[in-house]
Amino acid sequence: MRFAFTTDQLALRDAVREMLAKECPPSEVRSAWANANGRTASAWDALTGMGVLDALVPEAAGGLGLNMLDLVLVCEEVGRVALPEPFVEHALVAAAVVGSGHGSMSALVGPAALGVYADSVDAVLVEDDDRLLLVAREGLVLERQSSVDHTRHLFTVDWSSAEATTEVGGPQECADAFDRAALGNAAVLVGLAQHLLDVTVDYAATRNQFGVPIGSFQALKHKLADVRIALEFARPLVYRAAHSVSIDDIDRSVHVSMCAAQAADAASLAARHALQCHGAIGYSDESDLHMWMKRVWALQRAYGDPAWHRERVARAILDED
Amino acid sequence: MRFAFTTDQLALRDAVREMLAKECPPSEVRSAWANANGRTASAWDALTGMGVLDALVPEAAGGLGLNMLDLVLVCEEVGRVALPEPFVEHALVAAAVVGSGHGSMSALVGPAALGVYADSVDAVLVEDDDRLLLVAREGLVLERQSSVDHTRHLFTVDWSSAEATTEVGGPQECADAFDRAALGNAAVLVGLAQHLLDVTVDYAATRNQFGVPIGSFQALKHKLADVRIALEFARPLVYRAAHSVSIDDIDRSVHVSMCAAQAADAASLAARHALQCHGAIGYSDESDLHMWMKRVWALQRAYGDPAWHRERVARAILDED
Amino acid sequence: MVVGSLRRMDLSWSPTEVAFRNEARAWLAENVPSEKLPSGDTRDGFALHLKWEQRLFDARWSVVSWPEEYGGRNATLWEWLIFEEEYHRVGAPQRVTQNGIFLLAPTLFEFGTQEQRDRYLQPMASGLETWCQGWSEPDAGSDLAGIRSTAVRDDAAAGWRLSGQKTWTTRGAFCTHMFGLFRSDPAAERHAGLTYFLVPLNTPGVTVRGFGRLDGDEGFAEVFLDDVFVDDAMVLGEVNAGWKVAMATTGSERGLTLRSPGRFMATADRLVRLYRDIGARASDPALRHAVVQAVIDVEAYRLQTLATVTAIGDGDNPGATSSLTKVFWSELDVRMHDTALALLGTAAELEDNGWMKDFQFALSGPIYAGTNEVQRNVIAERVLGMPRR
Amino acid sequence: MVVGSLRRMDLSWSPTEVAFRNEARAWLAENVPSEKLPSGDTRDGFALHLKWEQRLFDARWSVVSWPEEYGGRNATLWEWLIFEEEYHRVGAPQRVTQNGIFLLAPTLFEFGTQEQRDRYLQPMASGLETWCQGWSEPDAGSDLAGIRSTAVRDDAAAGWRLSGQKTWTTRGAFCTHMFGLFRSDPAAERHAGLTYFLVPLNTPGVTVRGFGRLDGDEGFAEVFLDDVFVDDAMVLGEVNAGWKVAMATTGSERGLTLRSPGRFMATADRLVRLYRDIGARASDPALRHAVVQAVIDVEAYRLQTLATVTAIGDGDNPGATSSLTKVFWSELDVRMHDTALALLGTAAELEDNGWMKDFQFALSGPIYAGTNEVQRNVIAERVLGMPRR
Predict the structure, then answer these.
(1) How is A150-174 classified by DSSP, letter by letter?
(2) Chain D residues lying within 8 Å of C286, measured CB to CB
(3) Catalytic annotation, residues of D
(4) Where are the beta strands (DSSP E) in D314-384?
(5) CATH label, D259-383, candidates 3.40.47.10, 2.40.37.10, 3.20.20.70, 1.20.140.10
(6) Conformational region of residue A211, where left means phi above 0, alpha means psi within -120 to 50, and beta covers everything else
(7) Which of C51, C136, C285, D67 is the most buried (most CB within 10 A)?
(8) CA angle, D359 as apex, D357 and D360 as ends, to 5°?
(9) Which residue intervals of chain D bear CATH 2.40.110.10?
(10) Along the 321 residues of chain A, how does pLDDT read in single tens digits?
């Protein structure tokens, strides 16, 4: 029994954190809100350079040969800086199925999926009637959908007229791809929540009202303590799900759903309290806060909303005999 | 449009409050916890003397000829002192159906009802297959059930071998009897909650920790503010339901269910926060607090639990047409 | 519900009130734009909304409870409630004049001079002059008594010179006038020594900069004042008594006037319709009862308002209980939008569903008009009598 | 999770641990009384529980993680967790010795002298001597530093004279010994000048009065001390350093040791069984997901414990994070009982369902071992670094 990360896993996290701090500061997220494709100038290339985009690809096929347990902390870092890139879709979903060499990819798996950044990637992995297909972007008919998070360029994707599609997986691959997406999304939400907590704690220490820092008021302390508690009891579920996925544990889908529900709720709480503690300052779009909150509001129901995941757990633990 | 009580209604409330303050102080409730029938020494006689037990009985039949709107504030007073008597069952349910002259009565109406004080009343009004029957106590087979509130002497009641039963109502009378019970119960819960709030506010002003009254801490202030808010938005629903019942409004059952759910939730919150604000002192049975909390825990699901009532509202407003 | 009367409770509307409702409903059905206007918190939308306000005013629906001389109908509080219900029921446009009509105007009626009422009320009602609040400052948000903007007496000119910065001023970039508090006695502290001023925003020395809100609209503004001269006629109430005057305004904001039950009844209706459309497909079985609870809460809010209006009619003063109301409606509004988004599931993030944008607006409720943390302090200390720190 | 290692995550149990689990499970299956014992918080029930404790001790299951010389098995923390899971899984009796074994003992191991360990540990493990806490006083509940009971130095007798009153002492009326804090330096204030003492309750000058708890059991006691002499050997840790010693004990109480995941796993299992029995008949559709959420939360708690034990093994110190754990499990426990009572509906008030009594016990969780309000302050100030008032 050992429930902790290796020094290598922590070192990878630290390296990604350091890189993202440079490549994706808040100003870069703000730029992505306004630019043509909603993405960063150089973070994708930097991630490519570090190899993490092909981390799940076997070494023999030119990847790093890592697994979800190695990548879950990287997902947290992606969330922490609100990286506007199809990281989960490419690295956790598509590349893990089709390997490297297809350029950048997005993915559509699970209930009611839309294609994020489908207009700026080279190919999209789609789930179609229990099969996984890889479709080149040129073959797709896209219709833009407007997300509350303007960096999330979302599209309904129609591949029925695409000529070049390759079948790359069956029912089990579909299920596993969805689980990896939901897990990666949960880890991203944890990172987003951690950032929201951190900046709110900082803000509450410096903002004065009634002659004292507002962070000295019990009402704020208790709200932020609750966020800290929610994170404390979301992370272990995320890490365990990553472990279960990495060893193909038979219960991995239930473990993913447990962490997906918990992480979404923790992030939602973090956004709620972050805004309330910031007050009107946080309600302005000149504050960076809104970009993190809107990412939470977008992702908290992506790849299955919390109730969908709870229902998946319910069917496993309540309805069996 | 006028949503307020008359001076007469307020005067009746005040008279009952004054009487109950004398006849049912906390020491009397404590005695009822230990005595043979769980009831007071003299409060029932005093209520009889004031006529309120027959308040819903027409004047021609020897009652006061009042209606639910006149009595709803009296129910609050009954809750405020945690009166251990079958007030709702007798005055709001049974006497309203069968009039006076049957001694003291209990009543079994609605889902999963048990007979409160069925061993010490003279007769019980029971709902039996969409009929209301009045059964003398001698004809009943009683089995004691232990409530968390030891003043509530509860019984499963079997009247199948009773010789003297009188049919006193049909389906509509059954439905109306249940609605009056649920409404009276809601008003009692409001009174219980008000008392819990009052004593907790008082306690928090006098108990010192960390060199200040604990009531000066924001955490306690906000908890008790929430209780006050819950009461502010439960009472109008209770009073409106009383009005609807008093004029046989076609939507009276929905109105009763709205107030029943809201009052039960307000009382439950009041009990929760009262205990937490009292801390260990409230956790001791030497404090009177527990008698009020346990009454709440008993009554908050009597005559339909909040979800049962919400579902009744749901069928009316969500499933129609 | 404490003041007695021999009249029994009566929850029916009189024939006059029913007729009033029918008249309002008919006019609104005829006149409300069939296309939803663009947000009034954008420059273009604001202008379109003012056209609507003018139309309301011309038909004397702009300020129904005001005296006829200012464009109203002398309507009772009950009729005003009825009008608001109908207004929200039909989904009529947001009132971009509300800070003037619902906040400043009651204060003008209570504290203003006859000259001030004659000068300002009618242009306010017609939308010719539009008012924004000038209370919050960068360092005075929840702590309104922390105001630092100053009013320096200019005896020679028989007026005052205002300097400082106001911020989070809703629609400030589009309005013509501002009302706000300034520190007129530099020696006084906190609540003392403040004066309530009316300030035309085209006065020399005023600079307004609009900025965006959470929901993307340019609904906020900063107002910079650099030695702005206003004469004595622009003081509302007494000099150095601004706090008392302002508290009357915030009482209006938190309590009855701004957020009438009609608004939340309309939201609850939309929520019920959403549930009927998609509730059966939602993954969360709890949403059925969440929708019911929203309806119950809105009904409780409506009834509590009826009780309050009855009490006002009986001569009672609601006072600090407006804090109870503010906490309740603002958090109810958030809950209703949470429920709607949960019903929408993965589609909730899409802006075309309308709920996501309204959700963001709902989140401002627990913040503005005094954060709910401050309101809960007020409830504890002034309603329950708990000890101050 | 901050200390690194090259060993990869591994959530499986070793063959040794599996064997340990099987041995424990087999013994418990054989020995746990088939009839539930009466509450250990009553005089009669306490005596029956002590018989069970003796049986546990005789089979060396009483204190598995202790050294063998004191009756333990030198079990690892992992094995101890496994044992607790099995213990709760089978519904074995409440440990009436827990205040000694799980609170005082870790403190004795850390701060005690060899003589104290040799004298007190084994009788504690066997239940021959039973310990209660003597911390809270009538005016020192949440504010433990407000302690007024005094320890006056008696140089001649080489000891101390204790006076004062302790209260809310769980099972104090049935125990033989008490540990607690006394003010040994009258000039010092708050956390300073306190000393941690061990007090046999049969010492002259001690009076114990039992009283009832919320759930009706006589589980509380007041302990009055009137010039009670204890010699120097009864001081645990250093004189005037009692706060530091006590904080180690409360850390144990709030954190890992007392409330192991096994207890809540067992409650969640009961809740799942209750749902399977009657969930389909319950009127609240939300309960299905409430039960699921309970299972998720318990699983999160179990995994968080595994992470903490791993970190301790790596040399990390959990520190103030024990406050996170305490708030979480205590409120989770209340939620689980709320859900169970909601499932039971109108039958919830009946005592024979068992849940109503356990619900009342659950309500003590957010109060004892430092109220959750105090814990949230600790989390904000010591974990998040927010400013003190």
Answers:
(1) TT-EEEEEE-TT-S-EEEEE-HHHH
(2) 285-286, 289
(3) 253
(4) none
(5) 1.20.140.10
(6) left
(7) C136
(8) 70
(9) 131-242
(10) 999 999 999 999 999 999 999 999 999 999 999 999 999 999 999 999 999 999 999 999 889 999 999 999 999 999 999 999 999 999 999 999 999 899 999 999 988 789 999 999 999 999 999 999 999 999 999 999 999 999 999 999 999 999 878 999 999 999 999 999 999 999 999 999 999 999 999 999 999 999 999 999 999 999 999 999 999 999 999 999 999 999 999 999 999 999 999 999 999 999 999 999 999 999 998 999 999 999 999 999 999 999 999 999 999 999 865
Residue among A228, A191, A239 at smallest CA distance from A82: A191
Interface contact A111, partner C, CB < 8 A: yes
Q: Is A218 on the interface with B (CB under 8 A)?
A: yes
- Residue D137 φ then ψ, to 5°: -130, 165
| Two tokens, residue C72 | 């109203």
Annotate A188-227 with b (16+ C-beta within 10 A) or e (fewer): bbbbbbbbbbebbbebbbebebeeebbbbbbbbbbbbbbb
| Residue of A235, A195, A182 whose CA lies nearest to A82 | A195
Integer-rounded Cα radius of gyration of chain C? 21
Active-site residue, selected from the candidate residues C53, C79, C218, C253: C253
A212 in contact with chain C, both atoms CB, cutoff 8 A: no
Distance CA B258, CA D221 (A): 44
Q: Do C17 and B4 touch (CB under 8 A)?
A: no
d(CA B306, CA B291): 22
What ipTM was reported for this prediction? 0.96
Give per-residue pLDDT as tens, D209-232.
Answer: 999 999 888 889 999 999 999 999
| pTM reported for the whole predicted model | 0.96
Question: Would you call D283 and B305 a contact, using CB atoms and an 8 Å cutoff?
Answer: yes
How far is it, in rounded angstroms, from Cα B170 to Cα B127?
9
User: Hey, which CATH number is domain B172-317, 1.20.140.10, 3.30.110.30, 1.20.1050.10, 3.40.50.2300?
Assistant: 1.20.140.10
DSSP state of C213: B
* Partners of residue B1 in chain C, C-beta under 8 Å: 10-14, 17, 78, 306, 310
**For position C257, what pLDDT does the model report?**
61
Six-digit token pair at D375?
């814990």
- From the CB of residue C150, how many other CB atoms can be counted at a distance below 10 Å? 16
Note if C253 is an active site residue.
yes
For residue B14, pLDDT over 60 is answered with yes
Classify domain C131-242 at the CATH topology level: Butyryl-CoA Dehydrogenase, subunit A; domain 2 (2.40.110)
Distance (Å) from the C-alpha of residue B191 to the closest C-alpha of chain A? 29
* Residue labelled with tokens 């404090």: B287
Pairing state of beta strands C206-211 and C220-231?
Answer: antiparallel
Do D120 and D178 contact (CB within 8 A), yes or no?
Answer: no
Flag if C349 and A149 touch (Cβ within 8 Å): yes
pLDDT value, residue D316: 81
On whether any CB of chain D is under 8 Å from the CB of C292, the answer is: no
CB-neighbour burial class of residue C280 (10 A; exposed 0-12, middle 13-18, buried 19+): exposed
